[in-house]
Amino acid sequence: MYYPECLPPMLDFLDRIGMPFKAGPFGQDGFLPGIQIVNGVMLIDPDRLAGSGDVLHEAGHIVVVPSRWRSRMGNDVIESLDEVVAADPDAADDFKLQTSIKMSEFMAQAWSYAALTDLGLPPECVFFPGSYKYHPDIKPHPMAAWVESGTHFGIMALSQVGMTGGLGLFEPLGANGLPPFPTMAKWLQD
Asked: How far apart are the C-alpha atoms of 95 and 118, rounded to whole Å?
């Protein structure tokens, strides 16, 4: 596992913010090795993780979903969200839910970076070699560089749903009175 020393503070962080998870030998993989999502709860098998930062990234997918639908999340978050929209007539008109559907990947990347910053951990914990389908030799990792420069679309989306303020290129769009990213006004969507 990449950066195993980062996992304990990440798990403490998830516990502190109220993101439900269980750690143990679950034996099955979900979308990523060592992580399953069942009814909005992350099951984490530390022995199967590719990188400790995958925990924050997958948590990011869950926490940006409005709380009333979060318990419906499964391994394929986008498929779960599509099922929510199909089953709940209010879901199609909910701006925060629609933003979490359309911008899920970007929001999870930016959210996990903000969490790393809060924890004082290096970006490489989430943006480790080979992650996000980038060649392991590309340094710095492009995703980390985009977030750090304020040009990452996840910052805009987190700002639009009221989880943080804007930064960099997206600062005017995020003029919502909240402190600028990576400071988060809230870690879990209402």
From this structure: 27
Task: Give the span between the Cα atoms of 114 and 131, in whole angstroms.
Answer: 17
Residue pLDDT, tens place only, 41-94: 999 999 999 889 999 999 999 999 999 999 999 999 989 999 999 999 889 999
pTM given for the model: 0.91
The radius of gyration of the chain from alpha carbons, rounded to an integer in Å, stands at: 16
Confidence of residue 141 (pLDDT cuts 50, 70, 90): low
The span from the CA of 107 to the CA of 58, in Å, is 11
Q: How far apart are CA 109 and CA 131, in angstroms?
A: 11
Segment 162-165 long-range contacts (CB within 8 Å, at least 24 positions apart) = 162/186, 163/64, 163/111, 163/187, 163/189, 164/114
Are 37 and 45 in contact by the 8 Å Cβ rule? The answer is no
